[in-house]
Amino acid sequence: MSLLVVGSVAFDSIQTPYGEAEEIAGGSATYFSVTASYFTPVNVVAVVGEDFGDEQMRIFRGRPIDTQGLERAKGKTFRWRGKYQGDMNEAQTLETQLNVFQSFAPKIPSSYLNSEFVFLGNIDPVLQLHVRKQLPKARVVACDTMNYWIQGKPEDLKKTLAAVDALVINEGEARMLSGVENLRRASSIIQRLGPRTLIVKRGEHGACLFQDQSIFFAPAFPLEQVHDPTGAGDSFAGGFMGYLAKTGDLSEPSLRRALVYGSVMASFAVEEFGLSRLLRVQPEEIKTRFKEFKAMTHFDV
Amino acid sequence: MSLLVVGSVAFDSIQTPYGEAEEIAGGSATYFSVTASYFTPVNVVAVVGEDFGDEQMRIFRGRPIDTQGLERAKGKTFRWRGKYQGDMNEAQTLETQLNVFQSFAPKIPSSYLNSEFVFLGNIDPVLQLHVRKQLPKARVVACDTMNYWIQGKPEDLKKTLAAVDALVINEGEARMLSGVENLRRASSIIQRLGPRTLIVKRGEHGACLFQDQSIFFAPAFPLEQVHDPTGAGDSFAGGFMGYLAKTGDLSEPSLRRALVYGSVMASFAVEEFGLSRLLRVQPEEIKTRFKEFKAMTHFDV
Q1: Among all residues of chain A, which has the CA nearest to that of B202?
Q2: Do A297 and B301 touch (CB under 8 A)?
Q3: Which residues contact B106 (CB under 8 A, 6 or more apart)?
Q4: Chain B residues closer than 8 Å to A185 by CB
Q5: Considering only CB atoms, which chain B residues are within 8 Å of A87?
Q6: Which terminus has fewer CB within 10 Å in chain A: N or C?
Q7: Residue B202 in 3-state DSSP?
Q8: A300 in reach of chain B (CB within 8 A)
Q9: What's the gap in Å between the CA of A235 and the closest CA on chain B?
Q10: Global ipTM
Q11: Number of domains, chain A
Q12: Domain ranges, residue A150
C-alpha cells in the first residue's frame, strides 16, 4: 500500500567530529521517502526552491517515489546548519534559513487523497492537522514533532495529537510533552492525548514502542562509528511506516518488526554523511541487519 | 556453587525527589549478597564498625549468606551521603566517611579459598588483585570499579583487569576507561585489557553484554517510579553472578539469561529506599519479571 509523507526538503550543512558537509540534500521528507521506498511506494508532499535542481532530484528517481506533490516555489530551498559534538546524541543548530519553507502550505494531489498510510514530518502542527483532515481513508497516521512546537504551539499540537494514531518522538521531547521524567508515566500521559501508539527514540540507546498496555524495546545497532546522525529519526520513521505500509499488518508482532526495521534504517543513515549510505543500501543488507538485531536481543527463557 | 563477594558494608544517607533516608544499611557487599542469595549461597568478606549492630546483622540472617568473613573492626562503619536529582541516573556524593573501611584489608577465611565464583566489589584495585590471587580455583572472577580508581590508580587497575574474567561497569566508566566515546570500540579496548566478558550498565537504558565478538542488549525494566537508585549496580551484579553460580553454566545463552536476571534484581532494588524491596522479593516475583523482560524484547523474524 502506498505511503504519503508530508515534511521538509532542505539543504543541510553539517559538522561532526568526523568531518563536515556543505549544502547536501536533506530534510524530513527526503530521508523518510528514500528509506521507506525500500519497502513500499512513497508519495512526497514538500516544497523546494528554484535552487533544488536536477542533481538533487536524482535522489528520488529510480526509486518508487512519486514527486508529483513536491512543489517548486520561487526563492531558495530551506537551509539548516548544525553541529554534533561528544556523544552526538543531539544536534546544535547553528543557522536556519526557512526560505520557501516559511510559507509552506501542503497541497495534497488528488491522487494521494486515498492514502492509507501517512507520515506527518516535523512541521507546524496546524499544517499537520490540516493535512490529516484531508485523508479520511487513512488507516495509520503517524506524526513527529519537536520542542519548538511543544513549547510554542502546545494547544495546536494537542489538537493534532488527538487526530493521529501514532507519535514518533525522541526521549527528551516525550519528557517535555508529558511534563514528567519517568518514561513509562510519560507514555501514558501522551497516549491519553490521542496517539494509541507511541514510539520513543532514544538515540544510541535504541527505541521503544508503547501500544495499549504493551511495551517493546529495541536497542540501537552498535556501530563502530557514527559519522552523521542527521536524518536518523526520519529514516527510523521511514523504516517503521514503510514496513507497515508494505505488509498492511497492524498487529502487535508486526508493529514490533516495524520498530526494528526503523532501527535498521536509522543505523544505515548514520554510517555516512547525509543520504550517502541510504542511497546505496542493498535489500540484502537490510535483511541481514534485521537478523543481527534478533541475534543481539534474543535470550531463552 | 557458592559465591564469594568482597566489598563494602555501609550506612547510607540518601535523598531523592521521592524522599530521604538516614543511615540505612547499604554498601556493595550488602546489596550484592542479599540479591545473589536468591540464587545461591553467598560468602561475604567486608568490614563493619562497632556501630553495625544486631539490627543490621538481621539483613543477612535467614538467608544463605555466610558472614564469617564479615570483620568487625574498632571504630565506625563506612558512611556515605548522596543525592539524586532529575533523571536520577547519577548520584551526587555529598559526604563520605571511610571510617573502618579506610584500612580495610580483606581477609579470606580458609573455607572460602576454594570459591569458584567471585565478585570483587568497587574497592581499591590493589586489594581486588590481592584477593584474586588467593583464589586459584575461581572459574569466574568479576569485578566492578569506578572513575575514582580509573583516574587515580590506572596502572593498578590494569593489573587487576588482566587478572579477571569479567568487568561490570557503567557506560560513563567504560568511556573513561577506554578513552573513547563509542561503546562498541570502548568494549574492544576494555576486553583487550583482560576481561573476556564486559558488562556495561546504562541505568534506565538497560545493560549490554560483550563476550568475544557477540553483543547482547537488555533494556531496564520500565518502572512507573524509581524511588532510590542506590545499590542498583551491585544488585545487578548479584543477580548476574548469582545466576551463573547457581547454574555453573558459562555458555553464551546462560550469560544472557544472567544479564537479564541482573536487570530483574536491579529493577527491584530501585523500587524502594535502600534494601527494603530486595529483602522481601518473592522467588515467584523474580520469575515473573524475568518473563516480562522476555515479553518486552521478543519479536519474530
Answers
A1: A205
A2: no
A3: B6, B45, B46, B69, B123, B127, B130, B131
A4: 224-225
A5: 181
A6: C
A7: coil
A8: yes
A9: 21
A10: 0.93
A11: 1
A12: 3-297
| Distance between CA atoms of residues B62 and B210, nearest Å | 35
Instruction: Give the pLDDT confidence of B220-242 residue by residue, as tens digits.
Output: 999 998 999 999 999 999 999 99
Which residues of chain B are under the pLDDT cut of 50?
A: none
pLDDT score for A88: 81
The pLDDT tens digits for A258-288 are 999 999 999 999 999 999 999 999 999 999 9
pTM: 0.95
Place of cell 579506610: B102
Q: Taking residues A125-137, report their average pLDDT.
A: 97
Give the model confidence (pLDDT) of B13-47 as tens digits: 999 998 999 999 999 999 999 999 999 999 999 99
CB B296 to CB A215 under 8 A?
Answer: yes
- CATH number of the domain enclosing A140: 3.40.1190.20
What span, in angstroms and rounded, lies between the C-alpha atoms of A69 and A47? 8
Q: By the CB < 8 Å criterion, does B256 face chain A?
A: yes
Choosing among A171, A181, A217, A294, which should be mutated to test the B contact, i.e. which has the most B CBs within 10 A? A217
Integer-rounded Cα Rg, in Å, for chain B is: 18
CA B161 to CA B64: how far, in whole Å?
Answer: 29
Asked if A80 contacts A10 with a C-beta cutoff of 8 angstroms, the reply is yes
**What are A258's three cell numbers?**
516495524
